Amino acid sequence: LELLRKMTECGYFDDKKLPSLCKNDKDEKNPVISCEKKVPTLIISLNERCIYSKRAFLTEFRRLLDANNGRITLKKVVAIFSIDFEDTRRIVSEVSTAQDIYLIGTEILTHAYIDLKCHDLHDVITQCNIKTISEIATDWQLPLQFTSDIVVARMELFEDIKTIQADDGTKFLITDDYGEIVLDKVKKILQDAKEPVKVTAVGKEVQFGAAVTEIIKKIELLLEGGNLNGTLHTGQNIFSALYTPSVHEQKQAKLMTTFFDSNGFITLLKASQTGISKKTLEKCLTQHNPQAILLNESIFHPDIIIIALQIDIDESIHSESFVDLSSHFPDGVPESDMRILIEEYVFPLLNEGAMSGSLIIDDGEALFFSRGMIEQIQTNLIPAVIESYAKDQAKILMDATLEMTNQETHNETKANRKSCRAVKKNSKVKEERKRFKRSDWEDTRNTIPIASVASAIADYYSDLSDIQDNFDRKKDISIEPSWDNDCCGPLYCFCQIVIRNVQFERECASAIRAEMDRLAATTIRNRKQGAAKFKSIEESFEESFKAACQFLQVLAKQTRYMINHPETDDDTATVLVEDWLSGCGTDFSRRITEYCLFKHDVEEKTFAFQKDGIDSANFCFYSEPDIGRLGFSRSFLHCPQSEDMKVKNPLKVLRDRLPGSVGVGLAKMWSLTGGNNYHGGTRTGNFNLFLQHIEDSCLSICGIPFKMIDKKAEKGILFARRKNMQNALEKTSSIQEIFRLSVALLYQKVKTLAACGNEIESSILQALVRDKKISEEISALFLECSQLIKHKSAAPEDFVEHIKACGLCKDIANH
Q1: What average pLDDT is seen over the chain?
Q2: Which pLDDT score, from 0 to 100, does residue 21 have?
Q3: Of 109, 202, 241, 673, whose CA is between 20 and 30 Å from 469?
Q4: CA proximity to 574, closest of 475, 674, 651
C-alpha cells in the first residue's frame, strides 16, 4: 500500500507521464510492459490504478479456478481482481502453458477440466453409441475446431471409441458395437423398401448423417452376403447413390417392356432414370424378346425400326436421292449406336449391301446418300465446279506469272547489251525459271475449296441445303469450313468423305494446268496489254508488298517474344495478341484486300474499312509501309448499308465477289484477325494461324508469294526504324510522343526487337524496366513519366528533356 501511495504521488499513474522506472527504456513504448520487465514480480494495471504481486495473483487465480471446477470466464476474473480486462487476458495468456490451462476466447479451462469432460463423454457415448463433434461443442459451449482437436486427441486413449469422418467433413465418435447396430438398421430399412431409396436418406434414419461412404459399405456387405435382394447404383456422385429393391425393378421392368414393344426402342438413360440398371434391363428385354438388338447405350426392336429404316433407304436407292434417317432415332441415342444399327443390321438386308450408298452421321444427323445420287453429283456437278474454279485459279496464277515475266524480260534486255555470253547465260536462266514456274503451279494448293463444292450441291438439292441450314442455326458454327475441319454439318461431311478422294484432287490439279496452258498459248498478248494499263500501280504494290511482309515479320517476332516470356501472364498475352492482330494484322489484310479489289475490278463502294466513320489516315495499299511508326490505325472491314437498309456479311461478300480461292483466302485472313475487326464477327483471333495462313496463301490470293525475311534484311529494317524514330524524337515536343518514342528506342537497343502498338505504355514499358541493362534511376524516371501522362499532369521541361536524352543516347548503360 505504501509503495502504491508513493507511486501515485510521484505521478506513476498520470496518463500524461511515463513512470520513472521506464524513462531510460527507449525501445519500450508501453510503460506497463516496461515496468514489468524491470520488476518481473509485479503486475501493474494503469487503467485500474492497481499494482499486484504476480505470485500472489497466480496463487489466488489458481485457487479461483479450482473453486469453479477448472472453468471460469475472463469477465469473472476481472470482476474479482479488479484488473483491466486486456491486462488480465495478457497475463493469463502468458502463463497458460506453465499453468496447464487453455484460454479459448473469453473462457479459461484447465487440463483437468477437459480430462473430466472427456471421461463423462466416454460414458455418454457408451450409452448412446454415437455422438457428433458438433453436438459435443454445443453441449460444452466451446468453439467447434477447438472441441474437435481436443476431443479427437483425448478419445484416442479409449480403445472402445473410434472417430469417423463423414463425406461432408462431419466427425463422429462411435462405439465398436455401433457398426453392427447400423448394419442391422440398414438391413431392416432396405428389406422393407418397395421403392428406390436414396442412401443419404438411409444415413439420416440411422443417425449416420452424411457418412454416405460408410452406409454404401454396409449395403455392399449386405448384398454380398445375400441379405438384400436389389441393386445399388452409385455413379460418380456418391450423394446421389440409390438402392433399388428387386420388387421395384420387376415392376419397372414390366413398364420398360411395354414401352419397348410400343416404340421399338429404349435407351439406357431412360431406364436409369427409373432406377433400372443396364444389366437388369438387358436381361429383362432379352427374356421378353430374344431378338432384341443390344447396342452400347440403347436397345432396339428388330421388327419395328429396322423395317422402317430399310424402307426409307430402299426408296432413296430407287429414286437416286438421299434420305434423312435422324427422325427414326430418339434423343439420347449416340452416333455409334446409329452407325452399328444401320451398317450391321440394315445394310445386310439391301440388295447390294453397303455398296448401295454412303452413310453420313455427324453431330446427331444421320443421312444416307444413294450410289445413284453420288454418281450423278460426280458426273454432272463436280466437273462444272472444277472447270469454273480452274479458270479463276489459272487466271490468278497467270497474272502473277506475266508480271514476273515482264520484269525478267526487262532485266535480260539490259544484260544482252553487254555480251553474247550474257545472252546464253540468261537463256539458261530463263529456261530454269520456266521450269520453276511450272513447279510452282503444281505445288500450289490446287484443290477446290469445300465451300464451292457444298454450295453447288446445295443449289441442286434444296432439301439437303435446308438440312445444312438448320444445322448451322442450331449449332451456330463460327469456324470456316474446310476439307480438314470437322463438325461443319452433314453437307460438308458428305463432301469430305464421299467427294474428296485422290481422283478428285488429281482432276482439280489437271484442270488448272490445262487452263494455264490454254491461257499461255492464246491470251498472253491480250493479258499483257490489259495489264499495262495498271502497270504503275501493280509494280508499286509488288515492291511495297515485299517491304510489308518483312516489316510484319519484324513486329511479329517482338509479339511472339513477349507472349512466350515466362513473366508474361495469360491475360497480358491475350491483350498483346489482340493488339497486334487489330493493328499490324488488319493493316496487312487491308493492303492485300484493296489490291485484290482493284485487280479484279470490284466496285469501290462494295467494302469500307473505317470504324465509326473514322478511316486510317493516308492509307494506300501500294505505298511503302512506314517502318518508323509506333502504332496502326485500326481497319474495320464492313459493307455499307444497301438500299434495303440491310448490312451484308463482308466475309460472305468477299467469297462471292472475288473468284475462287481469292475471296475464300481473304475471308479466312480477316476472320483470323478476330471478330472485332470485321462486321458480324464473333470468333477469337489466332496469332499463329494468321501468320501461317498469309505465308501459305499470299501467292494464290494476290499472285505474289509471301516474302520471308532473313537476318540481313531484319538488321536493315531495325537500323532504318531506329533512324526514323530518332528523327521523329528530335522534332517532337509532345511529352506523350517523346515518352513512346524513347521507350521504343530503348527497348530496341536492349532487346534488338521492334516495339509497336498500344502496349508500349504498359507491357513494353514493364519489360523494359525489368531489364538488367536499365538502371534503377532510369526505370524510376520512365515509370514516373508514365504516371504523369496517365493522369494528364504537367511535367517540368528538364524532366522531359531527360526522357528525350535517354531515348537518343547511344549507350544507356553509360547514361
Answers
A1: 77
A2: 38
A3: 673
A4: 674
